[in-house]
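Question (not urgent): is this output format expected?
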Amino acid sequence: MKPRLADLLPTLRRLAADRRGVAALEFALIAPMLLILYMGGTEATLAVTLHRKLVDTAGTVSDLATHNNAVTKSELEGLANVARDIMRPYDVTALGLSVVGIDIAPSGQAKVVWSFARNAPAPARNSPFTLGSDFASLKDAFIVVTTARYAYQPLGGYGFTKPIDMAQVATFRARSKTGVRCDDC
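Got this back:
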């Protein structure tokens, strides 16, 4: 016996009026997007926090390097260890650090006097150094330029698929008129 449309009509009306599964269906459609948005926000927050630590690292190392008239390579190694401690709990093997002593002549020409690096490139001794626009007018001075670099590898890749390369440069003027020496750098 074939069902008639008139017999199915009350069943179809009941099905159309039933709203019990609508909330579950809406949640199933929205939940993946909300989860991706939440995880992407978490990744962005971690990256911003890491960059803030990078700013602190570069500034602290430059500040500490300019406290005395002279530093040694072992003291700069100690400053690199301080930088690693500032960056914790993040992966400190991804941290690159260079500390460079720059002498600026009365003519405004800047030259590298000494340099130290760990996991990063550093300019050669006696090579010219290009000052940023903030220091272009500085003459007859000694500065220490610290560059901290970090390649942040996102945890889950929620919108971030490649490492985020971050760099921060901190420039401090030497506290003494004679500058900061590093005889074994």
